[in-house]
Amino acid sequence: MKRSPNPAKESFLNNLPTISIDAHAHHFSDSLSFSLRYFESSQPAGQDFDAWSHPQLVKLLNKLKFYCANTVEHWKHERAGRLAILEVYNDFPRNSGFTHPKFVPVDVLWARFRLEQSVRLCGFLLPDDKVAQHGLRKNVFYIVFLDLNHKFYITEDS
Q: What residues of the chain score a pLDDT lower than 50?
């Protein structure tokens, strides 16, 4: 007895995922990830998420998604005009509208992502030696501050 085609069943089966973790392992180890574990919104120079408009938050999330498609090393070398997309300062900037939060370790690598014009996403990376020593995940950017007005690293141009 021949069964008649079942379009719903065929559609369901055709849409099941078939890609394994093994085939995508490099994405899990190399791609940039973001963490909000050290997010701080109480400093006057920064903002909390509710201070950003809906369009600003949508832009932020789209940028995060875009940045996650590559590695930290990639973004260090990628430029928007003359500025690096990801600038690693190492130490907390001396000329900053922010202060180093007490709950952020002293030996992190402070950095910022340039989102657009004067908008920055400020935070840190872990040094390679600490990642290796403690078996930590590399390519994680820990977001500490939202900076709408370029106050994290104040330059003459800001």
A: none
